[in-house]
Amino acid sequence: MKIGFIGLGNMATAIIGGLLREGTTLSSEDDNATVITAANIIGSAKTEATRQKRAEQFGIAVTASNREVAEAADVLVLAVKPQFFPEVIAKIREVVNENTLVISIAAGLTLERIAGLFDRDVTAMRLIRCMPNTPALVNAGCTAVAPGPGATAADETLCLQLMGSFGRAIVIPERLMDAASAAAGSSPAFVFMFIEALADGAVAAGMPRAQAYEFAAAAVAGSAQLVLETGRHPGDLKDMVCSPGGTTIEGVKALEEGAFRASVMNAIVACVEKAKAL
């Protein structure tokens, strides 16, 4: 099995790193299993510096030719920005055949739109749309996976194995992709802002900044892990921390007075509306 990446930026790097770090096994259409090594991966990038960096980092084959990657790949990951899709696909569509599984990680581009760029009907193309997020860079990603109508059950399984190599992978209907993109893809930026604000508050209270960042980041990471591992409602866990008349409920009151929840909700809705407009 050959996995091709067109584009070798941060997200492609996260995926490749996950595949190679874990010695991921991918299942093919004929039920054969392949343990992925560097020999199974080929990638293309515009600049020589990027190609050299990824070759040295992972030991994978690299090239300047997107067409070469598309010709070689059994699984083709399109990891370029959405605005470059028309240009890239125009030069590779002739060599992407009906047996190639195509995976897009571009925001805002629908399955139907991508298939159209290949001059194909979406029902006749093995196509899956994915949205990973930046925590994938530290093997803690959360990826939304929306299989197209032409993708097989085996394609879906393979994609989940691939995207699951660096975190969680969750299948959703495509109509929820913009919401997932906001909730998982954009939200790390909001969480980073929250961590920074937590640390700023601690600094205002006299804590050294480096220590404040460590406390804030560890508290956020641990809180998220508690939600995922216990399955308890976040509100229930919040109530568990808030003692009657205590310090925490006083802080919760201050956040509510500052429209904390509404601000976060509005940020997610704004991201969704922007994604729909792309």
Fold and architecture overview:
- By secondary structure, the chain is α/β, with parallel strands linked by helices.
- The protein has 2 domains: 3-172, Rossmann fold (3-Layer(aba) Sandwich), CATH 3.40.50.720; 180-277, ProC C-terminal domain-like (ProC C-terminal domain-like fold), CATH 1.10.3730.10.
- Helix content is 52%, strand content 15%.
- The protein contains 11 helices and 10 strands.
- It has helices at 10-22, 48-58, 66-72, 85-92, 111-117, 153-163, 177-204, 209-230, 234-241, 247-257, 260-277; strands at 3-6, 25-27, 33-35, 41-44, 61-63, 75-78, 101-104, 127-131, 141-147, 167-171.
- It has an 8-stranded mixed beta sheet with strand order 5-4-1-6-7-8-9-10, sandwiched between helices. Strands 2-3 form a two-stranded antiparallel sheet.
- α5 (111-117) links the parallel β7 and β8 (127-131).
- The model has no long low-confidence stretch (mean pLDDT 95).
- This is Pyrroline-5-carboxylate reductase.
- Residues 2-108 form the Pyrroline-5-carboxylate reductase catalytic N-terminal domain.
- Catalyzes the reduction of 1-pyrroline-5-carboxylate (PCA) to L-proline.
What does the secondary structure layout of this molecule look like, with pairings?
Blueprint lengths: L2 E4 L3 H13 L2 E3 L5 E3 L5 E4 L3 H11 L2 E3 L2 H7 L2 E4 L6 H8 L8 E4 L6 H7 L9 E5 L9 E7 L5 H11 L3 E5 L5 H28 L4 H22 L3 H8 L5 H11 L2 H18 L1
Parallel strand pairs: 1-4, 1-6, 4-5, 6-7, 7-8, 9-10
Antiparallel strand pairs: 2-3, 8-9
GO cellular component, one term: cytoplasm
Main location: cytoplasm
Family: Belongs to the pyrroline-5-carboxylate reductase family.
